[in-house]
Amino acid sequence: MNQDPLVLEEIQVWTTPLFVTQMPDHDFLKDALLAAVYQQKDRQLTAIDSGVAPKAKHAMHESTLDFLELADANVMEAKRALEELVLEVAARVNQAFWPEDMEADARIIESWYHVTQHGGYHDAHSHPNCSWCGIYYLDPGDASEAGKGGLNRFYDPRVNAEHYADPGTAYLGGHGVWDFTPIDGQIVIFPSYLKHSALPYFGNKDRVVIAFNCIIDAY
Predict the structure, then answer these.
(1) What phi and psi values does residue 55 have, to the nearest 5 degrees?
(2) Class at the top of the CATH hierarchy for domain 19-157+174-218
(3) Which residues are CB-contacts of 169 (< 8 A; sequence separation ≥ 6)?
(4) For residue 81, what pLDDT is reported?
(5) In 3D, which of 34, 209, 48, 189 has the Cα closest to residue 127?
(6) Cα–Cα distance, 57 to 75 (Å, whole number)
(7) Phi/psi at 105 (nearest 5 deg)?
(8) Which residue positions in the chain have pLDDT lower than 70?
(9) Tens digit of pLDDT for each residue in 95-113?
(10) Are 63 and 113 contacting, i.e. CB atoms less than 8 angstroms apart?
């Protein structure tokens, strides 16, 4: 008696997309953006001007949450480029769910810089007030060198995925984290629920990033 072949349908669920790209015109924008960062940093009254979770951050300066609202042509161009990138990401992952005739815009609602010095870090956290987030490595400092740290670490959102390990769970990866070494001009875009941290940095140069939170408006 012949048996019908076993049919197994694989269903991929609860995937977490991250996107990596290079900032358009980074070489042109970098020096001007760094100048804007340090001009504002020099006016800071406290290290963490945002007032958000200062005990979770060490040896770094953080701006208020409106850095990309500065009335500066280069800052405004950076904001426009970042919003275009986020819209491309959101449109790609939601293609099967958006109506065909829907129009959308990405809008950065919060943005800030981090200037991290030797020994600086940012504990694990997430951003609950938006749909997409991004980190733009304006100047990685020495983070790209081996042993200098300063990596951004993302944590597996499947909180119980690794409560047990045997050969049957090898596909999970066995580590539960994904690390990005900062690269000059690189942007990482990720969903807001994804917990992440900035690991301790041991460079002599400042590690400078611009981070942002974004929402999608439909019409």
Answers:
(1) -75, -10
(2) mainly beta
(3) 162
(4) 98
(5) 189
(6) 25
(7) -135, 145
(8) 1-2, 174
(9) 999 999 999 999 999 999 9
(10) yes
Q: Which residues of 69-87 are buried (b: 16+ CB within 10 A; e: fewer)?
A: ebebebbebbbebbbebbb
d(CA 29, CA 136): 12
Helical residues (DSSP H) of 61-217, grouped into ranges: 73-93
Which element (helix H / strand E) includes 189? strand 186-191
Nearest-angstrom CA–CA distance, 111 and 107 = 11
Q: Where are the alpha helices (DSSP H) in the chain?
A: 26-42, 73-93
Distance from CA of residue 194 to its chain's centroid? 9
Please say whether the beta carbons of 138 and 210 come within 8 A. yes
The encoded tokens of residue 182 equal: 């900062």
Task: Give me the amino acid identity at 201.
Answer: Y
Do 77 and 29 contact (CB within 8 A), yes or no?
A: yes
